[in-house]
Design a protein that fits this description.
Elements: H1 2-12, E1 24-27, H2 33-40, E2 46-50, H3 56-61, E3 67-72, H4 75-88, E4 93-97, E5 110-116, H5 122-128, E6 129-140, H6 146-152, H7 164-174, E7 178-191, H8 194-203, H9 212-221, E8 223-224, E9 227-240
Parallel strand pairs: 2-3, 2-5, 3-4, 5-6
Antiparallel strand pairs: 1-7, 6-9, 7-9, 8-9
């Protein structure tokens, strides 16, 4: 199953520090998940973070509030998250292993649910939200790194008949949410050299495999100011129960 293959992938990278890639990011879309989250949350908020991975983004960007629960399908990622939590000094945060598609959380409990680059079931998410609570999704679309995928003839979502953004958007509607917005997010990432870029592509699930000749072709056409550019396509969804 695809769900299980992603668990194996994240188990393998559970201790990997992506800051080591020294990626320079240029954001072209005015939609910031953490800015929206900060505006919605207050000191009494209870927040659920799905796909929390090693907790780095949660610990660095989530606001201080009454309760934050970070969940991930990968036990290795949750071990990393708990180590990061212990050294962070932050309070009112817990991490647990949980399958987003088989959620084990209280009903009508959370004020905000955040899902970042992870599978979701909006029906289950809606059950755990309080009335008036918010769902925030940030995901990877089919057309992420599309010029790279076209050169390689495949990759994450390449054969999908419908982009994941549309699937998630329709599922949120069907689950009974309101005030729903879908926003395409465009970013440019810049890598300092071929070695770093190849190492990155070998760690993330963008391509099925990295062919050196095809990689060199991409680099030759996508180097600007001495750095290799990667065009990223994400999507953001906001919705209210």
């Amino acid at each position: 199953m695809l769900h299980d293959s992603y668990q194996n992938y994240y188990e393998e990278i559970s201790n990997w520090d992506f800051d080591a890639f020294d990626i320079r990011t240029e954001t072209l879309t005015d939609w910031d998940l953490y800015e929206i989250l900060g505006n919605l949350a207050c000191e009494d908020s209870a927040i659920l973070d799905l796909g929390t991975a090693g907790g780095e983004k949660l610990l660095a960007n989530f606001p201080d509030c009454k309760e934050i629960l970070g969940c991930d399908y990968s036990p290795g990622m949750i071990e990393t998250a708990n180590r990061n939590l212990a050294s962070s000094g932050r309070k009112n945060i817990t991490f647990k292993v949980m399958d987003n598609l088989n959620m084990d959380v209280p009903q009508d409990h959370f004020d905000i649910v955040v899902a970042r680059h992870t599978p979701t079931d909006p029906v289950q998410i809606r059950r755990c939200l309080k009335d008036g609570g918010y769902l925030l999704i940030r995901g990877v679309d089919k057309y992420d790194c599309w010029n790279l995928k076209m050169i390689f003839g495949g990759g994450q979502g390449y054969e999908d008949p419908v982009p994941q953004s549309i699937i998630d958007y329709e599922n949120v509607i069907k689950a009974g949410f309101r005030d729903i917005e879908l926003v395409p997010i465009h970013e440019r990432e810049y890598f300092k050299d071929r070695e770093t870029f190849k190492s990155f592509l070998c760690k993330v699930p963008i391509l099925d495999a990295v062919d050196d000749d095809l990689l060199d072709k991409y680099i030759a056409d996508n180097t600007f100011g001495g750095r290799i550019r990667l065009l990223r396509n994400y999507y953001g969804i906001t919705a209210r129960k």
